[in-house]
Amino acid sequence: MSDRLIFHIDVNSAFVSWSAVEMLKNGGPDLREVPSIVGGDPDSRRSIVAAKSIPAKKYGIVTGEPVSSALRKCPNLVIAGSNFDWYVKCSRAFKAICQEYTPTMQSFSIDEVFLDMSGMNLIYPDPIATAYEIKDRVYKELGFTVNVGVASNKLCAKMASDFEKPNKVHTLFSNEIESKMWPLPVEDLFTCGKSTSARLRSLGIFTIGELAKYPVEQLTMLLGERGAIHFHNYANGIDDSPVLQETEDAKGYSAETTVEEDLVDIESINRLLLAQTDVVAARMRADEGKCRCIGVTFRNLDFVNKSHQKKLPEATDVTDIIFETAKQLIRESWHGEPLRLLGLSLSDIERDGFEQMSLFQDENKEKRKALDSTLDSIRGKFGNSAVQRASTIDTSKNINRRNQ
Ligand SMILES: [Mg+2]
């Protein structure tokens, strides 16, 4: 597989950079230069750090933690509200540039793509020069920076793009794994969360190199067979997974977050779920889509993915219905085990704007739809801090009625 050529392109501190570009246009400060986060209302218990600047990271602030806790770490923190409609525009413009370079692009998240550049050497004889060209074009045309990882598989490309930031191109070819990846702490290995790395440390495994050389049979006792093989391969830079060219249309809309601190309580899960709902619902509404199916995915410490989904009686683009359904799915399927990954997906997308009449038709739906577009535009203008969802709307009545 060594003749493959894969790029992973990752926007540096995406939400912070995108908000910075927007604020700079209006003469505001450059959020990227100061300790800053994109979050929401610091007084709201539901508000979490959706993104952090590189200077904020130096204070130990992590994505997904409550804004109040981030403020304790850095009292001078600049907090910007989020503007999901703007992020969707930035994301699309970024992906449109990337897509010009290959027919095989995988949207990995709102700010990350994989490009399969294999066999393109006639058009792009120098892959490194091409990586620099993409990076510089994004900055020149859109005003934000990206990192590009260049490698012969997706894992190594992703690891490479995560090396020094921002605005850098890095390679991680197989002959560089030993020098560039093996000295890194084991928690830097993609998918190796805090709890796995803690368990690995208990075996005396501190670096990716030590993990790579550790006997798989002994890893199996600690991580189970799947986990052991997975981490053994990853530590050795082995990954055969293809770049999956999927359009958002086909797969719907989804968000997946790997958390740095395991999720152990329902409040943290719901907080993250609400942030994910906000992003994916805004993306879907920007496309004038509605979903018929809502799913949640989570992964426990044994590296097992669990998914649970529900078909709705009618398609929706209403944030509160999506959020309430997602919460219900978690209630039905989560049994309190610590989680390291949480995902939300909207699928079965309808895009013709035609809604079937239904016995479940809810007279408040039009009101709630109007409220959602108001919320989106308030977020657009003032950020999340201007939005007090919990006190604005009581959905419990409507949701209960829908389920009867
Ligand atoms: Mg990024």
TrEMBL record:
What InterPro entries does the annotation carry?
DNA/RNA_pol_sf, DNA_pol_Y-fam_lit_finger_sf, DNA_pol_Y-fam_little_finger, DNA_polymerase-Y, DNApol_IV, Rev_trsase/Diguanyl_cyclase, UmuC
Q: Which positions does the site annotation Substrate discrimination cover?
A: F15
Subcellular location(s) of the protein: Cytoplasm
Which enzyme class, named as a word? transferase
Keyword field: Cytoplasm, DNA damage, DNA repair, DNA replication, DNA-binding, DNA-directed DNA polymerase, Magnesium, Metal-binding, Mutator protein, Nucleotidyltransferase, Transferase
Q: Name one GO molecular function term.
A: DNA-directed DNA polymerase activity
Give the main localization category. Answer: cytoplasm
Catalysed reactions, semicolon-separated: DNA(n) + a 2'-deoxyribonucleoside 5'-triphosphate = DNA(n+1) + diphosphate
Q: Which cofactor does it need?
A: Mg(2+)
GO cellular component terms attached to this protein's record: cytosol
The domain of life for this entry's organism is: Bacteria
UniProt binding sites for Mg(2+): D10, D111
What biological processes does GO assign it?
DNA repair; DNA-templated DNA replication; error-prone translesion synthesis; SOS response
Known EC number:
2.7.7.7
Annotated UmuC domain residues: 6-193
Q: Which family does it belong to?
A: Belongs to the DNA polymerase type-Y family.
Quote the protein name from its UniProt record: DNA polymerase IV
What species is given as this protein's source?
Pseudobutyrivibrio ruminis
